[in-house]
Amino acid sequence: MLGKGLSLNLATVREQWNLCKAVEACVRHGIRCVDPWRDQVAKVGLDAAARAIKDAGLAVSGYCRGGMFTAADAAGRQAAIDDNLRCIDEAVTIGAECVVYVVGGLPKGSRDIGAARQMVADGFAAILQHARACNMPLALEPLHPMYAGDRSVLSTLAQALDLSDTLGKGTGVAIDAYHVWWDPQLEAQIARAGKGGQILAYHVCDWLVPTTDLLLDRGMMGDGVIDLPRIRGWVEKAGYRGWTEVEIFSRDNWWKRSGDEVIRTCIERFQAAC
Amino acid sequence: MLGKGLSLNLATVREQWNLCKAVEACVRHGIRCVDPWRDQVAKVGLDAAARAIKDAGLAVSGYCRGGMFTAADAAGRQAAIDDNLRCIDEAVTIGAECVVYVVGGLPKGSRDIGAARQMVADGFAAILQHARACNMPLALEPLHPMYAGDRSVLSTLAQALDLSDTLGKGTGVAIDAYHVWWDPQLEAQIARAGKGGQILAYHVCDWLVPTTDLLLDRGMMGDGVIDLPRIRGWVEKAGYRGWTEVEIFSRDNWWKRSGDEVIRTCIERFQAAC
């Protein structure tokens, strides 16, 4: 088993249950850690969500998600920063080990990916002091390059580590196998992240062949082509001892099954295929 | 205008016309260069295809495509090598300036991307001598990482250049803006490719937001988010003076329009948005 064991990213059962029912289900199945999404928390209320998680005795491997720093104008970028400051406070209330970031894609009407990347760096710089004051680590998550247009101009682990190096203390990376498995530099960059003490989170699911939707066709571990045990080995070798978070967006498959079946399968596959 | 001007990759009108009719259409619209696909050539016959292109006075910026070196067993890999030797001969007959490679994804049942990448290197090594003897340059094309599972384990320009460096004389890269636009290293790697004299081809289309299909939803230049003029500038600065090839797979849009409209639009957008 990798590190502390399995954490369930609650997006995995978002279509089946609200946060409170998902937390109950985790307890029922012996899962000891979750990562809730902001909209799931908002739906039941921040305090109720925090209480449900705490009363259940669950750890919180991360809080999804901060980011979306890129905007067409300064007012939009400031609004994003303000929202990200609130997100950090929420993560503190929830008891999360870090906030996970989807940094934002190209602003509407823009083709300037360099400028968008600068907006992301500026956005992190603007929230860093507050995050440090709260002892809330910021986990920069490189997303698959197919999201560069609309979700994340942070596209590789090397780029995320470069940005974390620049930002310094209180920042690191979330490594999601789905986003980085194809990267020829992956082994080297994981080792680099380990040396820098920068691995804040490790996420898994699988890449299906064929993949029928860019966002909502992620696979259960073992059903796709990612060599998860190999990547786990690299992450372990780099010194990571935290949770392994399962996060599956699957509109036409897992989101249509019963939540209990999904969780049972996550647990089985975490043992057999990760 | 970049270099020699516009070349039409004939996949762009593959649903409208066979090769001979597409060549006639190019002449009608003043296009002076094409890149045919092997299946398009096979359909009308190699000699007929070569004659049609030659009689029309068209240049051939590339021949699509060699590759698919990855296979589950040695017999499959040898079959791929044999097929690639034939592909080089066809490219000579067609008068192509290079063969463009889609190297292959993970073999069926495999999750070992490192092994697949080695198969690709071995495959190129096995055909290199023949290619050199024929004076047929091999254009290694990195494909977008979303194709790593099923089409190409060559995923970044840096990786393609590393492989070309290893293989040496007679090899270079095809840079397709669609596949590499997201890469934080793009400017640096294009400059590196220029220094090495390794840019054999430059392809354009656009990345649509949203993209609804991983393979068949490429956009017309100007309809998406790629900063094509900026990338063109990098390619020019790197010393490339060849053709700019337009290659659009678009099942639900451009493949459904009249071929003449598609070509007219390619010409307009090549002037206005590239």
Question: Which homologous superfamily in CATH is the superfamily of chain A?
Answer: Divalent-metal-dependent TIM barrel enzymes
> What are the secondary-structure elements of chain A, in order, as H or E?
EHEHHEEHEHEHEHHEHEH
CATH class of chain A: Alpha Beta
Largest sheet of chain A: 9 strands, parallel
Q: Residue share in helices of chain A?
A: 40-55%
Largest interface: A-B, 33 and 33 residues
Total helical elements of chain A: 10
The structural class of chain A is alpha/beta
Radius of gyration of chain A: 17 Å
Spans of chain A of at least 5 consecutive residues whose pLDDT stays below 50 are: none
What's the average pLDDT of chain A? 97
Strand order of the largest sheet of chain A: 3-2-1-9-8-7-6-5-4
Q: What is the oligomeric state here? A: homodimer
Q: Proportion of β residues of chain A?
A: 5-15%
Distance between the termini of chain A: 9 Å
Q: What CATH architecture of chain A do you see?
A: Alpha-Beta Barrel
Shape of chain A: globular
Number of domains of chain A: 1
